[in-house]
Amino acid sequence: xxxxxxxxDVHKDSRxxxxxxxxxxxxxxxxxxxxxxxxTSVIRAWQGHKIEQRWFSAVHGSFNILxxxxxxxxxxxxxxxxxxxxxxxxxxxxxxxxxxxxxxxxALEESSKLLVMADYLLGELNxxxxxxxxxxx
Length: 137
Description:
CATH architecture: Sandwich
Oligomer: single chain
Shape: globular
CATH topology: Jelly Rolls
CATH class: Mainly Beta
Helix content: under 10%
Structural class: mainly beta
Strand order of the largest sheet: 1-9-6-11-4
CATH superfamily: Jelly Rolls
Number of helices: 0
Number of domains: 1
């Protein structure tokens, strides 16, 4: 399965703005949290899951998200190419990260917040993999 950007939208009128995403199905979500970046120099890389899925949505500001599909969890190929996505709070886009990927997350604006949704509860599964920030070339 490949990462999918579920595009949201916004409706504006004299009362304000309504942000929506009518194609995002929440049935698999068991847990939510958000990541707040204090500055744009911090990069949260490379962390991912062999089994768990994640969904990301920018609720404030914007983020550059890089995703790499892992070929071997014990020793991934260092030349794997990332896919790049930009998420902005200007629309309610949701990025689905299927199982088998690691991510790199960087805020593009100060104090940005990224909503993270997961399909497993905390502690329900031991499925967290981390690699050094400079692991992939």
